[in-house]
Amino acid sequence: MTIKRLVLIFSTLLAIGLATLSLVSSWQKPQFQSRLELYQTNIALQAQAWQPEDSNDNLQVIRQAILEDQPLENATQQYQEAQKSVQTSLDKVKNQLAQLTPSKITTPAKPLPEDTFDTDTSPDVKLQQLQQSFNQQQKLLAELDLRLGILQAQQGQQDAAFKTWNELQQPVESANPPPSTEFRDTANVLSGLWSNPPRILPNAQQLIQKNLDGWFRYTALVQLYQLQQRQEPLLAVKAAQQEAAANAVFKLTLIGTVPALAALVGTILLIFLFTQRLLKGKAALISQNADVPWKTPWDGDTILQVFVLGFFFMGQLLVPWILSLLPIPRPVGNVRLQALYVLVSYIFVALGALSVLYFSVKKFIPLPEFWFRFRLQDKWWLWGLGGYCTALPVVVVVSLINQKLWQGQGGSNPLLQLALESQDFVALGIFFFTAAIAAPIFEETLFRGFLLPSLTRYIPVWAAILASSLLFAIAHLSLSEVLPLTALGIVLGVVYTRSRNLLAPMLLHSLWNSGTLLSLFLLGSGN
Q1: How far is CA 265 from the centre of its chain?
Q2: Contact 111, 128 (CB under 8 A)
Q3: Residue 38 confidence (pLDDT)
């Protein structure tokens, strides 16, 4: 056995071990889907307040089609589930903090940025990470309690609402900092507004406007102004609520209608393709090139070299290390700098991996037919559009199953959270370029352009699609995303193997990421 092969084997085992540790650590992180569902709930609550001035029947039909039958009840259930999930995470962090006693801490750790995960496992750094996580979870739980209480009060469940708010006002039995006193003061304000007789605190309006937003803020302000019998601000807040509700209805229409139509087209396409496969067999469209492997001039060592050295070590070790040496502080408060940092990091990772890929296959140039094929004359755009439509119902079904399995845990791509909460158009433009242009080009070149065809040297085409899809999902280092991304990867692989044109999966990938970012922007702007 050569030294090169020994190094590759050792590097592969190391990469597998580190990737496994990253996946395991993501299990303890909250899933982005949970936060996304709350945003969807909030915008649905905002929309249900819409009362169109025109009594046109068409508007009423649109309202009934978009809005839920029991928005308050559904929102209450959603917030209760989120409350339980956050409380469970908070209890886990408390237990971990209790195990890390002060005697184990040697020196105070410097504060860590909120959006980073430091792999340093020293006790002082670990304490800082746990303390930071505890504070974030505690703040989120306080926000959920405030909102849940309003939902309960609006449904006439005053006792349940008072209980929710009273729990927030109780002193925290912990050595850790309690939630902001503003949250407890706001809970006291809300308890007073819905009491009988009501109690109005002098700073009620300021606390409501600062610590509540969306439907919850409007509802609390309406309750306050009605009790104060202040007609002018009451009319103003109701007008603002109607304007926000109309915007929410428009956003819900965009978010729901376009993907729903695409999913409907995709479902019809799937039925057509499978029916045609049953009737025509290998002459069917879906069977085109299905069993035709690529002529691969390199062996498994080259495949490992590209992925272990090019993708893993370049992306996970070398590039982050080089960036850490540069005199550029990691941005935390400025979302534009965060977006730019993500883009620059991604470009460095892509260039590193693609450089290793190029030098690994350079000696085999000219490559056999169909390798890294880009042909504008082909019907690649039909494959890309059709693949996007068929991917929607497939991934949605898999995601629903996945959500039941993970119950809100498993971590998520941090870029999604940044895109959801950012309303800066420059930052969103940079995020869009990263996710909808840079990512499809790099990831499709690596996973579909190189890995999938290379695997057909050893296994059938269908097995190569499955294997490359699973590695594509695992490479995102988030347990909760493995199943949905594997499903997406399978559709990408089918589109590429049938079309034999990399432009097709790139278009599909770009459409998928673009649709996700657009939906996140619309949801975020409604919260």
Answers
A1: 25
A2: yes
A3: 77
What region does 131 belong to: left with phi over 0, alpha with psi -120 to 50, or beta? alpha
Tokens, residue 134: 């505890």
The per-residue pLDDT for 377 is 84
Domains: count for the chain? 2
Q: Percent helix, strand and coil across the chain, each rounded to 5? A: 75, 0, 25
Residue with tokens 């092969």: 5
Shared domain check, 208 and 136? yes
Could you give phi then psi for residue 207, rounded to 5 degrees? -70, -40
3 state SS of 323: helix
Instruction: Please say whether the beta carbons of 218 and 244 come within 8 A.
Output: yes
Do 178 and 306 have their domain in common? Answer: no
Which residue has 């750790």 as its token pair? 109
Q: What is the pLDDT of residue 443?
A: 94
CA-nearest of 475, 474, 465, 413 to 442 is 475
Q: Are 480 and 33 in contact (CB under 8 A)?
A: yes
Residues in the chain: 527
Distances (CA, A) of 370 to 4, 284, 373, 437, 450: 29, 21, 5, 23, 11
Structure tokens of 40? Answer: 């969807």
Q: Are residues 55 and 111 in the same domain?
A: yes
Contact residues for 495 (Cβ-Cβ < 8 A; gap 6+): 383, 384, 386, 387, 504, 505, 508
> What is the C-alpha to C-alpha distance for residues 272 and 285, in angstroms, rounded to an integer?
10
0.90 cut: is pTM over it? Answer: no
136 lies in which domain range?
30-252
Low-confidence residues of the chain: pLDDT under 70: 1, 26-35, 53-69, 100-126, 128-129, 169-180, 327-333, 406-423, 524-527
Question: What confidence score (pLDDT) does residue 399 get?
Answer: 86
| Domain identity same for 62 and 170 | yes
Provide CB contacts within 8 A for 135, sequence distance 6+: 176, 177
